[in-house]
Design a protein that fits this description.
4 helices; 15% strand; alpha+beta; 5 strands; 110 residues; Arc Repressor Mutant, subunit A
Length: 110
């Protein structure tokens, strides 16, 4: 069945695919149709990412990159790379508009 011929807006299909990793299933029945939505895909995290997440999760306040680097025993640039991966996975968020802000801190998102 062509999903687009049913009048389902492409934006909705795209958002579903981004959220769950796949488009919804659509079944045409006698006088109706059935839509099956899938749960959110789980982000896979490595050992270092899990360490950063635990650090942020247990912190009383958002943390700066240098604080995370010191706690994890990582170089600042390496820490920035790991934080950027966690931001892309929607698990960590910066506290300022620009991540280049010297006062930017990061917090656990969930």
């Amino acid at each position: 069945m062509d999903l687009h011929s049913l009048g389902i807006p492409v934006k909705i299909l795209k958002l579903c695919a981004e959220y769950s990793g796949r488009e919804p299933d659509l079944e045409e029945l006698d006088n109706s149709f059935k839509v099956t939505l899938y749960p959110k895909k789980k982000a896979v995290v490595g050992e270092v990412e899990e360490g950063i997440l635990n650090l942020l999760r247990t912190s009383d306040k958002p943390m700066k990159t240098r604080e995370i680097s010191a706690a994890m025993g990582l170089a600042k640039r390496t820490t920035i790379n790991w934080i950027n991966r966690l931001i892309e996975k929607n698990m960590v968020e910066p506290t300022s508009e620009s991540r280049n802000d010297p006062n930017c801190e990061y917090r656990f998102k969930y």
